[in-house]
Amino acid sequence: MTNAGRDTRRWGATLLWFLAVFSCAGSVRGTESTPTPAAPTPSLAHVTIQHVHDVLLLEPAPAPLEGELYDYYLLISERAATGEIPPWWAAYLYTSYFRDMLRDRPSGIPRRSREDLKSHLQAEIDYYYIRKRPGAQPAPFGAWIYEAIPAQ
User: Fold this and answer.
1) Are 32 and 26 in contact (CB under 8 A)?
2) pLDDT at 117 over 70
3) Residue 91 and residue 79: Cα distance in Å, rounded?
């Protein structure tokens, strides 16, 4: 390659570098171009409910239902972590609550309070006569999801 070819490439690279620097400087000041908004990050409730539905092989939850489902998931997980609810019952209770919500309140309105959810969960536990397993050891919070799926 000749020196003229190298000089041309060097000038081209230098020109590109200056263009990149000045275009970035303009966007930092905000006068030459408007910045693009960052993509919103999903909430913890959204990510958790999406993961629960993936593990339990449920269809994705509609966005208006995610908050209430997250609250119900937390209540079930508290009870399952102590062994008060066996993992397979926790999976059944969550799945039935989700399907009842889709049938009865697909828009999620009115949203149940945490106290209403506690009383609903207790009513379900009493109805099915769910009792603490003998010798149940405390489990990590939310581990019932993985225990509800049989090992393959």
Assistant:
1) yes
2) yes
3) 12
